[in-house]
């Protein structure tokens, strides 16, 4: 098993986070402020320099006004699609 940060699944997570943030109309810095995190936190997550755990995924979705449950389901479907392509 490869490290998730360098996997296709890791890329899907990064893409999902960016999509949720952009749909909310937030810049990376604005989202960091809402989360009470350092100003580079979201940038590092979206660039793949930092992993995002499930709790952080939940908080990011909530801060963006997105349903964490719905976004996680979409992400799991995208993971399944990757497996079917392999």
TrEMBL record:
PROSITE patterns: HTH_CROC1. GO terms for molecular function: DNA binding. Residues 17-72 form the HTH cro/C1-type domain. It comes from the Bacteria. Pfam families: HTH_31. Gene3D superfamilies: lambda repressor-like DNA-binding domains. This is HTH cro/C1-type domain-containing protein. It comes from Candidatus Entotheonella gemina.
């Amino acid at each position: 098993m490869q490290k998730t940060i360098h996997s296709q699944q890791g890329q899907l997570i990064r893409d999902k986070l960016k999509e949720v943030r952009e749909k909310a109309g937030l810049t990376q810095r604005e989202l960091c402020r809402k989360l009470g995190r350092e100003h580079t936190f979201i940038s590092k997550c979206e660039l793949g320099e930092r992993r995002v755990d499930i709790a952080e995924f939940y908080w990011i979705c909530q801060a963006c006004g997105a349903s964490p449950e719905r976004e996680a389901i979409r992400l799991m479907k995208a993971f399944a699609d990757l497996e079917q392509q392999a």
